[in-house]
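Sequence only, no structure available. Ideas?
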Amino acid sequence: MTPKENFKELMTGITRNGTENLATYLEEQSDFYTAPSSTKYHLSVPGGLVQHSLNVHKLLAHKEKAYRLGIDPETLLITSLFHDICKVNFYGTDTRNVKENGQWVQKQIYVVKDQFPIGHGEKSVIMLQNFIILTEEEQLAIRWHMGPFTEGFDSFTLKQAYNAAAKKYKLVPALFAADHEASQIFESEGE
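Reply:
I predicted one. Tokens follow.
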């Protein structure tokens, strides 16, 4: 089964109104199934975004089973599969001279071409809510899925907000952990 087929099969577990429109958007108006997951840090390859989403799902599902966190199955699917929907239609390509094995070569690279620069987690929440209604738990988990790597996290106010969200819902730190483990342990640079 391809990553795209696997993703679509998992998505059938989401029964909320608007899910069909979300699926159509992903297929016909986005690069979700072909986009990289990052410019150079993890899964910076075509299809990296869908693979990363599947990796996060697998890790979060494992945490739910191992720790009995009480996460609703549909919530688990939505938050793990769509935490990075903000990266849809987000990357472009360019060429750069890079040094490889002591030689300068011209190489195609991914670059950010953000058309709605509103942030990371909050952008995913906004984009998803254009299609489906999210619960408060889902909103907070997706908003804070970057945990302490959230932009501006050195702000006392943001630290307080994250800590309050993490105390309110176990999903908040669990999704962060799954995302961080996927990107740092299982997904090597550029692969």
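The radius of gyration is 17 Å.
Hope that gets you unstuck.
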